[in-house]
Write a structure and sequence with these properties.
The complex is a heterodimer of chains A (497) and B (368). Chain A is an alpha/beta fold. Chain A contains 19 helices and 20 strands. Chain A has 2 domains: 225 residues, P-loop containing nucleotide triphosphate hydrolases (Rossmann fold, 3-Layer(aba) Sandwich); 261 residues, Rossmann fold (3-Layer(aba) Sandwich), CATH 3.40.50.300. Chain B is mainly alpha-helical. Chain B is globular and about 70 Å long. Chain B starts with 25 loop residues before the first helix and ends with a helix. The N terminus of chain B is likely disordered. At the A-B interface, helix 2, helix 3, helix 5, helix 6 and helix 10 of A face helix 2, helix 9 and helix 10 of B.
Chain lengths: 497, 368
């Protein structure tokens, strides 16, 4: 067997306590179009960042043509014949296209030739990058990468932002690379593209490669089952939705009016048209692949971003939130996945939990410290927060930090809880504590909207699931619809189950 | 970084990728042709890229004309001095040091930093130059100038290196460095003193009614030093690093090295500020309050001159014109026989009003 063009052996990456990659073996042969697949958080982006020199691996080796190499910055990757089109365009918005190309020492003549080959020679290179729509920036990035005549072309979700005809030009480029015995590492959420254009695929799950096969043979169902894996073994099967408390809640609140109603919400390019309702006591799951508008949806609901059109109603009256403060005062609170943006990392657990309380306990005048202490103590006990490192939140583990983020709203009071991938990067034990807590809050009458990148959480926790694709709700399913049905809908496929 | 940021903020005139079509339904969709974006009009390119510069140039011209309509009332009488030339020289030579510091600040702000030590660097270079130049001929003074520039560039680069290597914010490192530099200036020259060659003075700032040398200095620095730099790959990298550090890194720009370079170039301009001060005063003056005032004025000139404090946008000509405009306010107030102490108030109000109008215009363009 000939030496692989690019291979990784037992590559791992940890960020502090969070393990992003456990051990990945990847091998791309010359003249191969190789797909890298995996559900959200499986480790794809981390692997790409290691291959391109953005991150250094914590363990393992990367080899080019069998020779171990050290890639410590993006420029290094170029020396080994790799060129990357990153998920975020590597183009500086305030400069013109020509200036951007000069910046990287790209061969202008060659870039123009590549653009012409993709039928894009009408693009005025004296435009400022900020004036160019995103799809063309991706194509420009691609032309720049091709101009270096790379042995290996890395395409990180390039088609996610492209309309079909531009995607087709990308596939033509991939075929041409292959014809010249060059390789492509292709990352995409669109399984159809993988099936049609790739020779081999490596599937990642939980930071490991779990399957390597020819996608044309196995097809989408094999990919999906590899992405999901035998998750049941580690997960408790007790489904809270069917528990007695939940049943009682449902009975009690059966006739209740909607707590949160979203009507035809649209914002920017990502959020096109989203409508749903959540009643008190109900947990609505949201499932989506990355970048389908869920980020925008949550920032609009939380008041951090203005909607272009559509309405958000809380208890029947419209919520016009100009800032998170407005949303919070109507009882709509957010728990983001990134704890670092929600907490005051230098402050103590107590100060963090009490921070929303300051709006309520004392608008003016001194803070009532006694009451603060009581309420915070209640919340920490209820959440079982490990207080050994309570002096500074940044020293807590990810799971405990997330409990603090939820805990502060317990103290502050809320009626609608927005959870954005609340268990990302959290160990399984703490996850279950958070599931229990969310379910308990719902049983007490809160309306919960939870986006999750872990599909199994939907069956465990939710009363209904709405699937978001390309900025629209494409399906509303019962929680026991099955992961493959949800995943198919999330890929924009008709229910394949 | 945070989920609240919107990486895909609405782009003007962007054709919506027809994402509503599911991927499987490729048949009819494949017929769709995504058309290239309409090129932006020359006018919109011009207003976006040069609009602020035109505005500050107009402000400068208005203030200049206003000032010269006042001259018969306040100029010197007789004595063989040409009033107009005397007034121009007072403006250009008197503002030369601030102009140099505005350029220093502009380069560093464009690269995404900020330098609170430019004023102190002016003191230090001024005092070192005056200390060594006293009683020397012109040629020696010029050699000393080269040494002073090299010292300032090295110290500023060191400052930039500390910032990039330690991750301590620019504002803290440069603030601390400003105390070091003004302390060092005092150590070199215990009080106002030192000297320089008359030829050196003549060369940089000219005689009392000779505005030409100071104008030539400005033009030379802009065309011989700044323009080639800004058009070099390194200069483009400075803009790139200030505009979007992450994108620049992904594009393969050596981010840390570029930021250090920006500080070194800033050091060049600060040293020029110190040298023209030496020539203008004919001596050195280590009083720290002068440096602190200069630093703040340099930031004001940069902001008024159209350089975004967030980095990546602007040039040096805008700050130069802004520095000249700021210097015209006090004499105009004097000519109006208004309490000159109010000149500072007027300066502050003008900065806020101009920057606020600019901000509103830019925000409106961003939305449409």
């Amino acid at each position: 067997m000939t030496a692989a063009l690019l291979s990784t052996t037992a590559v791992a990456k940890t960020f502090g306590p969070v393990v992003a990659l456990r051990s990945v073996d990847l091998s791309v042969a010359p003249g191969e179009v190789h797909a890298l697949l995996g559900a959200n958080g499986a480790g794809k982006s981390t692997l790409v960042k290691i291959l391109t020199g953005v991150h250094a691996p914590s363990a393992g080796t990367v080899a080019v043509m069998g020779e171990p190499v050290k890639i410590s910055r993006p420029a290094d990757a170029a020396r080994y014949g790799m060129a990357t089109v990153f998920q975020d365009p590597a183009l500086v918005p305030d400069l013109t296209i020509v200036q951007n190309l000069r910046l990287t020492g790209a061969n202008l003549v060659e870039v123009r030739r590549r653009l012409a080959a993709m039928d894009l020679d009408g693009l005025d290179l004296d435009e400022q990058v900020a004036d160019i729509p995103l799809p063309f920036l991706r194509m420009l990035d691609l032309a720049r990468a091709l101009a270096t005549d790379p042995q290996l072309l890395l395409l990180d979700e390039i088609t996610a932002a492209l309309p079909p005809d531009l995607s087709d030009r990308v596939f033509a480029v991939m075929a041409e690379q292959k014809a010249r015995n060059r390789s492509v590492l292709f990352i995409s959420h669109r399984l159809v593209e993988v099936r049609e254009h790739c020779d081999m695929c490596t599937v990642l799950r939980d930071g490991r490669q779990v399957a390597v096969f020819d996608p044309r043979q196995g097809g989408e169902s094999q990919i999906i089952s590899a992405m999901l894996g035998e998750s049941a073994a580690v997960v408790r099967d007790e489904i809270r939705v069917r528990s007695e408390a939940a049943a009682q809640t449902r009975e009690r609140l059966a006739g209740a009016a909607a707590r949160l109603e979203v009507r035809n919400l649209a914002a920017g390019r990502q959020l096109v048209d989203v409508s749903f309702t959540v009643r008190p006591g109900e947990v609505l799951g949201l499932a989506a692949l990355e970048g389908q508008g869920q980020d925008v949806l949550f920032s609009v609901l939380a008041g951090a971003r203005k909607a272009d059109s559509g309405q958000v109603l809380v208890d029947g009256t419209q919520l016009r939130a100009r800032s998170p403060f407005d949303a919070v005062s109507r009882g709509v609170v957010l728990v983001p996945s990134d704890r670092a943006t929600a907490l005051l990392p230098q402050q103590s657990v107590r100060a963090n939990i009490a921070s929303p309380l300051y709006n309520r306990v004392a608008r003016w005048g001194p803070i009532n410290l006694g009451r603060e202490r009581r309420e915070v103590a209640d919340a920490t006990r209820r959440l079982a927060i490990d207080l050994r490192a309570a002096a500074q939140v940044k020293r807590l583990s990810g799971g405990n930090q997330q409990k603090v983020t939820i805990g502060r709203w317990l103290v502050g009071g809320f009626s609608t809880l927005l959870l954005f991938d609340p268990t990302r990067g959290i160990d399984i034990g703490t996850k279950h504590l958070i599931y229990d807590l969310v379910r308990e809050l719902a049983d007490e009458g809160a309306a919960v909207v939870m986006f999750t990148s872990e599909l199994r959480e939907i069956a465990l926790l939710c009363d209904r699931v709405a699937v978001l694709h390309a900025g629209r709700v494409v399906a509303e399913l019962p929680p026991d619809a099955g992961e493959s049905a949800i995943l198919s809908a999330a890929h924009g496929l008709e229910a394949a189950a | 970084m945070s989920w609240i940021e919107q990486p895909n903020a609405p782009l003007p005139d962007a054709p919506q990728p027809d994402a509503s079509q599911p991927d499987v339904a490729r048949g009819p969709v494949a017929e769709l042709r995504t058309t290239l974006p309409e090129p932006t009009s020359r006018w919109s390119r011009f207003t976006r890229r040069r609009g602020w510069l035109v505005a500050i140039a107009l402000i400068f011209l208005v203030l200049l004309v206003w000032r010269f309509t006042q001259i018969p009332n306040v100029g010197l009488s007789g004595e063989g001095l040409n009033r107009t030339e005397f007034q121009i020289r007072t403006l250009t030579a008197g503002t030369l040091a601030l102009i140099m510091l505005a350029m220093a600040q502009a380069v560093i702000v464009i690269s995404g930093g900020i330098d609170l030590s430019v004023g102190s660097m002016l003191l230090l270079t001024n005092c070192v130059a005056a200390y060594f130049m006293q009683g020397r001929p012109l040629v020696t003074c010029l050699l000393i100038s080269i040494g002073v520039i090299a010292m300032s560039m090295a110290l500023s680069a060191l400052m930039g290196w500390v910032i990039t290597a330690s991750g301590i914010p620019d504002i803290i490192v440069t603030l601390a460095a400003s105390f070091v530099f003004s302390g060092a200036a005092l150590a070199v020259l215990g009080g106002p003193g030192g000297g320089t060659s008359p030829g050196f003075q003549q060369l940089l700032v000219g005689g009392l009614s000779d505005p030409l040398p100071s104008i030539i200095v400005i033009v030379i620095v802009l065309t011989v030093v700044w323009l080639p730099f800004a058009r070099s790959r390194l200069g483009v990298a400075v803009y790139a690093v200030g505009s979007d550090r992450r994108a620049a890194f992904l594009a393969g720009v050596p981010v840390a090295r570029t930021r250090v370079t920006a500080y070194a170039v800033g050091g060049f301009f600060s040293a020029m500020g110190g040298l023209v001060t030496t020539a203008y005063l004919g001596s050195g003056d280590p009083r720290a309050s002068i440096g602190a005032n200069f630093t703040l004025l340099s930031v004001a000139a940069v902001v008024l001159g159209g350089v975004l404090l967030s980095g990546g946008v602007g040039g040096l000509l805008g700050p130069v014109l802004a520095a000249l405009s700021l210097s015209l306010i006090a004499p105009i107030m004097l000519g109006l026989e208004v309490d000159p102490n109010l000149a500072e108030v007027a300066r502050g109000v003008i900065i806020i009003v101009v920057v606020a109008i600019g901000g509103v215009l830019q925000a409106r363009r961003g939305v449409t």
